[in-house]
Amino acid sequence: MCGMPSAETTRASVHQPEPVRPTREDEVAAAGSELIGGPIGRRALFGTSWWTPVRIVALVAIGMFALGMVQKLPCYDSAWFFGASSQYTHACYSDIPHLYQGRGFADGLVPYFDKLPGDMDYLEYPVLTGVFMEVASWLTPGSGTIQHQEQAYWMANAGMLMVCTAIIAVCTSRTHRRRPWDGLLVALAPAFALTATINWDLLAVALLAAAMLMWSRGRALAFGILLGLATAAKFYPFLVLGPLFLLCWRAGKWREFATALLGAVGAWLVVNLPVMFLAPEGWAKFYRFSHDRGVDFGSVFLVLSQRWNIQITADAANTWAMVMMLAVCAGLAALTLTAPRRPRLAQLAFLIVAAFILTNKVYSPQYVLWLVPLAALARPRWRDFLIWQACEVAYFLGIWMYLAYTTSGDAHKGLPTEGYQLAVVLHLLGTLYLCAVVVRDILMPERDVVRRAGDDDPSGGVLDGAPDVFVLGAAAHPPRHAVHFEGPQVEWGSRGPMSVGDSSP
Known about the structure:
Blueprint: H1 7-15, H2 22-25, H3 27-32, H4 42-46, H5 53-71, H6 73-82, H7 86-89, H8 95-102, H9 127-138, H10 146-175, H11 183-187, H12 190-195, H13 202-216, H14 220-233, H15 241-251, H16 254-278, H17 280-292, H18 300-307, H19 314-338, H20 345-359, H21 368-378, H22 382-407, H23 417-443, H24 449-452, E1 489-493, E2 496-500
Antiparallel strand pairs: 1-2
Main location: membrane
Subcellular location: Cell membrane
GO molecular function: hexosyltransferase activity
């Protein structure tokens, strides 16, 4: 009968795992849903209309990106060109228009091959980012005043970065099959919108998000290729191979790890080798610049040097950063191999990138973009995510107000040194807080929001549900559905959402 579902459809619906409803398990999401008419229903949950969760998340992300572009309007109109301090007091600074002329794109110079005038002899960005910048310059009209060209260059980059934003939102939403709505953490992240067009970091973030999606689908080679391309755009994505090595060691998935590693190295070499051989000095500029760069904004080294009036050289900062990073890596290795249940890939990926940020000698405000998609996968809990985001927004405002203070002369408009140091500490504490919560989830898997819903490691690909073959210390728990906890259930009364049952965060 045409009105009755087929037996195959009925069986598919029975065996298909039900997507997780954030308004059911998260009090903040439940309360926030009141602004749009209440908690999500089954029609939206199962995507029976055009408005599927992934499409909604992508559109919200694009909308927030557009709001971030509007926030840059005072600078777009004049502050980038006529006011050194006004681009800071309006918190709308961007590297993009300044580097159009400063890195030779206005003069048609070829990155890595043509030498730049002044102290910056070559472009100080990785190769794939340099290609991205060059493509945007091709889309920029060469006529008109330099101001109009810089505006057009920023707009061309913004359009390309918006595509990256949509890719990040879609990939994050699809990585955890049963949790597509977690992508809203990325789409609605205020720090994401504020920093998206400061620099070109979103290219690497998008490639890493796509790589994480490929690994969750068991496609190790595609993961490796995308990770290698991400590393060719920014160094930090390569760090994810460390946690992956440990997890594959614990699960005995050496073949998959080798495939991913070969794909990553091969993709990185394909991008870098031509420039490395044809323009070795220009290619090496990024690595020389990263090594020789002194202590800079946002780092714990800057706070120490300012508070105690000590001089920390670039070599000393490099050494201490390396020592701290190695200590963190050793700690993560011990955590991975001794945890009562194998950690999820997203958890360790977030922790290793966060450690790199915390121990680095510089923290540019757009570096928060590196963590946002990983945080949404590692700890999809609105309360913790928003606490961290509040600290990052405070730092975003703090650095611009501090620069306004230092560039406004005797007027001293902005934030003095002590206020900026407080903003740096807030950023450090906010990131450490989220790291601590993720570590707690690893040590106490019953507190993990993802595993309480019945999953093991939805971003883990071949690691999802795989038995352990190497564990240090006590025996691991059975991996799949070993501990199934019902999250806090949210009921709706006359006064709005009320949580019942487990109230743990």
